[in-house]
Specification:
124 residues, 21% strand, 5 helices
């Protein structure tokens, strides 16, 4: 297990590409988190309404749509999220200060970003 522990945390991964999703899931599982991976925004929207979600990783572009509405709903519910995308134009679409990680980064960078953004260090 790496030094960033997310034991007892529930992480939602919204990613359309199965291999990328699998890498992200494995990185979070190594940190001790319970992970649910979803490839459709409609399914993710239902899960965001359930209690117990600790954080979410969102690919910005999902099919012909994007995860902006989902990100807004997560913020309304007080659930931290990180955008994981390969699109440069997302920088213009996501408000300054919103956490985002480039898809060229190692998935462990997502774990570290979620850990620091959500300040889980003080809660576990």
């Amino acid at each position: 297990m790496n030094s960033t522990s997310l034991v007892g945390r529930s992480i939602l991964v919204v990613e359309a590409e199965p291999l990328i999703s699998l890498d992200i899931v494995h990185a979070f599982e190594r940190s001790g988190a319970q992970v649910t991976a979803i490839s459709k925004l409609s399914d993710a929207a239902r899960l965001v309404e359930a209690n117990g979600l600790s954080a979410a990783i969102l690919d910005h572009g999902i099919g012909r749509d994007n995860s902006s509405a989902l990100r807004i709903r997560l913020r309304e519910r007080g659930i931290p999220s990180v955008i994981y995308t390969g699109y440069d134009k997302v920088k213009k679409m996501v408000p300054e200060g919103e956490p985002r990680v480039s898809k060229q980064a190692n998935p462990d960078a997502l774990v570290a970003m979620v850990y620091s953004t959500a300040k889980f260090a003080t809660k576990v």
